[in-house]
Design brief:
By secondary structure, the chain is mainly alpha-helical. It is built from 1 helix and no strands.
């Protein structure tokens, strides 16, 4: 092989190694983002459960005190005649 060809092969091998390292780093970053998303989904589900329990407790307390029933969006649930549903 000529010296210039060997230099080009060495340069390309170095480039391949550099790209392989970059790809490995990107894979690690992607895996970390997936882990973070999974944790966020779990936290969101926990918060939604907490919110539902708090909303249910508030609705029960208000009904117990003679208040109106509240719907999913917090609006009072009233029938056409004005009574609670």
């Amino acid at each position: 092989m000529s010296i210039e060809l060997e230099k080009e092969v060495d340069r390309l091998n170095s480039k391949i190694m550099m790209l392989a390292r970059d790809l490995d780093r990107k894979h690690r970053e992607c895996a970390e983002r997936e882990r973070q998303c999974s944790c966020m989904v779990e936290e969101i589900l926990n918060l939604q459960g907490d919110l539902k329990r708090a909303r249910d407790a508030l609705a029960s307390a208000l009904i117990g005190l003679g208040g109106q029933a509240f719907g999913e969006r917090g609006d009072a649930c009233l029938s056409i005649d004005g009574g609670n549903l």
